[in-house]
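Hey, I was hoping to borrow your eyes for a little while. I've dropped the whole record in just underneath, so have a look:

——
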Amino acid sequence: MPTTQLQMARNGTVTPEMRRIAERENRDPEFVREQVADGQAVIPANTSHETLDPMIIGREFSTKVNANIGNSETTSDIEEELEKLHTAVHHGADTVMDLGTGSDLDRIREANVEHSPVPIGTVPLYEAVKRAGSPEDLTTELLLEVIEKQAEQGVDYMTIHAGVLAEHLPLTEGRKTGIVSRGGSIMAKWMEAHGEQNPLFQVYDEICAIFLEHDVTFSLGDSLRPGSIADACDEAQYAELDTLGELTRRAWDRGVQVMVEGPGHVPMDKIAENVERQQEVCDGAPFYVLGPLVTDIAPGYDHITSAIGAAMAAKEGAAMLCYVTPKEHLGLPDEADVRDGLAAYRIAAHAGDVGNDRPGARDWDDALSEARYAFDWREQFSLALDPERAQSAHDQTLPEDNYKEARFCSMCGVDFCSMRIDQDAREDGEMKDLERNTDLESSPAAEVNLPPVGTHDADAVERFEADAESVTATDGGESDSHRTDSSVGSRDRTPSED
């Protein structure tokens, strides 16, 4: 009996999740099903995640953004982590990864799943090491135990560092920054200590079985990603990528969804090569990239150095971008860092969608440009990526309400505002007046390409429940009725027999 979105898509079934995604992406439900069936897109949706508003990750859909949160031994408790989750969702994160390594991991993880309308991702290796005491003391039994527990808790996707093999480790010896992936360094240390192959690689089939039962999506970790632009596209990175391609196909053969993680630090001239090579080696599985950072000189500004690369990667076909905050390389991000990182990455994702001519993606830009030209300040603020920040910047110098009607700002003043001058010239001369004609309500754009950016909320889950009354089997041309329980997480994913 099919249990995963991939299996049901291959079986010809348009699931309620696919219908909800079609609504959010403004696409045909059958197209959504085909992309999932072919492995070109994933729907991270653990069957136990009750508050989830389904979403999709794939290069043919709007570019998604992930936000990393998580505590450490030195900072952050459950209340702070939930505040980070709220901040991430409010500012437009499409998924959130809990990378906590501190105390109370189970309670924090369960709280995140319980309160999150977006998919939650984890790296189970971190908890396994914490329980083992050291990388050398890890066992395959403990790894499987932790993975199964997190799957049962409702985690939607997990980073699994199964692609770094013992034979890859010597390839890193000429690097400037060695192995910078947490998971990669842990696996390397274990293999060096035991003289054996990567334990996650050894039990990969068992992991697939757990993921199959709960419909957890693989996020295959790039353990040998470059940690500096000098190490980009080296033999170690690409040797692991070849293994990730093999692991992708093995998971697909078992009915499990897969996306593949990517670099890292990559100079601008090699970003297209990275995306193209991953798409070829991994048969089009969605590519999920961290950055990439295009230069290494700007600690404190790495949300900018990485957003430049992220925009380029999105244009080349990366499906999801993992945000980087100003604290990258320096410390654990706080709420303000999460906000700044998400703003940078929402810009990068949207720029990629505009560059790829996604349906309606530019309508948001056009609507804001029209409001700017018309000096409709309140409309500008409401259409801005971060309305609060946009208005705050304006009001620092012109706070009074009468300036919301003014035909200038403090940058140029009254006499040197180019748009006011242009308008006056059109009014007094032969040039035609310009019209505002962009209607966002009728735009074909996906939700993430329309304001407000933070579209996820409890109401969205309720709409999904109300709309998910049927699934369609395309292979036989007949419709099967389908009912859901009051909670999304307890929904039965198989068509009824009647």
The chain has a mean pLDDT of 90.
